[in-house]
Amino acid sequence: MAISQRAREIQTLVQSFHPLIAIETVEEERVQALLQEATQDMGMPLFEWSAPQGLARSPGGHTPWTNDYAPPGTLQTLDEKTKDPLELLRYIQAMSLRAVFWLKDLVQHLDEPVIIRQFREVVQVFSHHRSALILSGNNLELPPEIAADLVYFDLKLPDRDELERITRTTLGVLKMKHRIQIQLQEGEQETLVQTLTGMTLRQAQQVLGFAAFEDGCLDASDIQNILNRKAQVIRSESLLQYFPASSLTVELGGFRGLKQWLDQAKVGFSEAAKSLNLPAPKGILIVGIQGCGKSLAAKAIARFWQMPLLKLEAGRIYDKYVGESEKNFRQALRLAESMAPAILWIDELEKGFSPNKGDGDGGLSQRLFGSFLTWLQEKSQEVFVVATANDISQIPPELLRKGRFDEIFFVDLPEASERASILNIHLKLHRQSAQTLDLEALVQATVGFSGAEIEHAVISGLYRSLYLRKPLDTAVLLEQIKATIPLSVSRREDLALLRSLAKDRFVGVR
Predict the structure, then answer these.
(1) Could you tell me where in the chain the CATH 3.40.50.300 domains are found?
(2) CA–CA separation, 468 vs 192, rounded Å?
């Protein structure tokens, strides 16, 4: 969506008598460019306010962010008294001017009854002559007396057009002002822009600058460095972990049924499917006991489809600060949408949406669950959800209803051929040859073992061999296998219950 379309949306809100608009963001440069474009087209003046500066007239005309590493110019304050929030509101009300007033971080000052009352009076006046107050900030929680008049404007993360402009401008600045060598072909520059999706304009500027100044050059080899920096930024500023498709080197032993389903579902992202107005695949739910490969499956899907993987640990959604959990979850979903096509892996789904939380959390889990269901049903971006769960009894029944996910898979313990494949994978990973071992005996000894337990046995066997100063052999591995009590034994009842629930309900991955 181009910025001009967003400007038209702001215009529609103002012209349809919405006196109070909230934009929850820290990207003030984008807010300024958006409001300048919208007000210029409407022929309305734009004023800006912050507590240190007071109220000032915003520069006329649409001024796109030029990204020239210089701070914005100081605006001329209209009246020093307007640095005080109460005086500001009185000043605005007395102006009798049809205009748009952008108030930065004013929400923090709406904690006194007299300020709230004055704010409401300004809003009431504005509702009659199509002026508007624009509130911006990182966390816009308004008093209930004011919230009734509020409408939120969703300033999504920069789209490809915006990222392309900021990339082109930044590269020009780096080349002209800092003599950075730009050695990118046309196709490589398009790839560079794609790597920046999911970032703010400032973050995009920073990672480009970091890559360029590191060696005085920006070329195709820097794209991987930018992806690594992007992963760090996303992890530090959101609930998500980011894995580029190129970084996923996992091998999945077995899972024939899942692989066949994925091979067929992939056509849902094709142009041919779009020409038939077919919706893209929504997602799958994978349930099974711990260590049976659910997490590996999520990574393997991203690798197989060559899409970036975004991991959301459901238990991390909850935050000790009231309102932050819902905000964090909304931001995670918006970030996933901005990076489409992408895989969103929701790990341990039951920890985020368990129905057994009841009212002990003030209804938060129910609200989050409702938001997730709505998003899952209505999302238009190509975000394929891979949800994994260990405890099916903790999953809300609404999620198990046909149509929520494209398919629900049950992962049981690996069969003999799959155990052989898993053993081969981990032996090869640790530079061992299965040819020197009695693989049939090892496969027989690991009946009832999960993939993770087989991996642990191989690693333990290698440590034992190093201690004994001898090559890994079958006897050492069998010793470690016999010393392991698998979950199929220690949690026999849980596995039996899971199998009985999954029987005739879910599709096996085998």
Answers:
(1) 3-152, 247-411
(2) 51
Position 510 confidence tier, pLDDT thresholds 50, 70, 90 = low
Rounded-to-10 torsion of CA 384, 390, 393, 396: -20
Query: pLDDT tens-digit profile of 87-125?
Result: 999 999 999 889 999 999 999 999 899 999 999 999 999
Q: Which fold has domain 3-152?
A: Rossmann fold (3.40.50)
Catalogue the E-assigned strands of 184-282: 217-219, 240-243
Name the percent of the chain in helix, strand, coil, to the closest 5. 55, 15, 30
Asked if the model's pLDDT at residue 64 lies above 50, the reply is no
Give buried/exposed letters for 448-465 (b at 16+ CB in 10 A, else e). Answer: bbbbbbbbbbbebbbebb
Going by the DSSP 8-state scheme, the letter that residue 341 receives in this structure is S
The CATH code for residues 247-411 is 3.40.50.300
DSSP 57-99: EPPSS-------S-PPPPP-BS-GGGGSHHHHHHHHHHH----
Which amino acid would we find at residue 290?
A: Q
What does the pLDDT look like over 207-245, one tens digit per residue?
899 888 988 899 988 888 888 888 888 888 788 999 988
Q: What is the CATH number of domain 416-490?
A: 1.10.8.60
Query: Residue 49 pairs with which residues in a beta bridge?
Result: 55, 103
For residue 458, how many C-alpha atoms fall within 13 Å in the half-sphere facing its CB?
26
Q: pLDDT (tens digit, 9 = 90+) per residue, 135-177?
A: 999 878 888 888 888 999 988 888 888 899 899 999 999 988 8
Structure tokens at 425: 């994978």
Half-sphere exposure (CA, 13 Å, Cβ side) for 234? 30
